[in-house]
Amino acid sequence: MTISLFIEQTLNGLQFGVMLFLIAAGFTLVFGIMNLVNLAHGSFYMIGAYLFATILQRVGAFWVSVLLAVILTGFIGALLERVALKPFYRRPYLDQVLATLGLILFFNELTRIIWGPQPLNVTLPGALNSSIPVIAGISYPVIRLVILAVGVLVALLLYLIIAKTRTGMLVRAGASNRTFIGALGINVNFVFSCAFSVGAALAGLAGALAAPILAVEAGMGESVLIFALIVVVIGGIGSFRGAFAAAILVGLIDTFGRLLLPPLFGDISVYLLMAAILSWRPQGLFPANG
């Protein structure tokens, strides 16, 4: 392997990792506060990608399209939480899994009805559709650097909010003891709606950023959700710090595994990583209570 290929694939792995973190962080937020297993979380990733592609075609402004896609995805998440998921808060996990699997099918068919069965391809405006030299004359796509930078900034922002603010205190309290929030006189339903909306918005952000480098199509959320769930398990359920560390690790292992290993082992390298880590630390790398 040449140095240039190593650097390029490292950047690819980091970019994939921060995208996984955005999805895993939203899932962690929802599960940690609401104790809700939402397997339809990947659908918000798909919705964000479709909304971004549609808005970009209309307005032509990248950042405006990203912002609107994130806001609309968060609104859809809040609406879904109020209308469909609220009755499942205190239901067994199996009921939650079955209900959210049904939502996956619903959203996949809805996107086919609205946008058609053919994948959407996104054409980026201006400099975002180019490459720039990064290290030792190696050129790298600008959009992938943007994804990497945005992912790191969002991770830093989430850390500051959760660790340093009153809102973060409520998130941590809700993750460990939901009755504590109610005892403070805070509207628990409002906290749940906000948490679900933010989680959906984070997944929508990942979808909007991934749309320019992937084909936007119905069902695109399922495969990435599997990786996000692996990230949550490896990092430690309910841990944002663990989610970030595990996302970077999974992104790098998957990228280099597919490059260096035979196809069979490359495809399962992430699963082998999960098995190895869980055999060593069953609670994950950075459990929420650790």
Strand order of the largest sheet: 1-2
Characterize the main sheet: 2 strands, antiparallel
Question: What is the overall silhouette?
Answer: globular
Name of the CATH class: Mainly Alpha
Corresponding CATH architecture: Orthogonal Bundle
> Would you report the number of β strands?
2
Helical stretch tally = 11
Tell me the structural class: mainly alpha
Task: Report the span from N to C terminus.
Answer: 39 Å
Percent helix range: over 70%
Q: Mean of residue pLDDT?
A: 88
Question: What does this entry show, briefly?
Answer:
This protein has 290 residues and is mainly α. It is built from eleven helices and two strands; from the N terminus they run H-H-H-H-E-E-H-H-H-H-H-H-H.
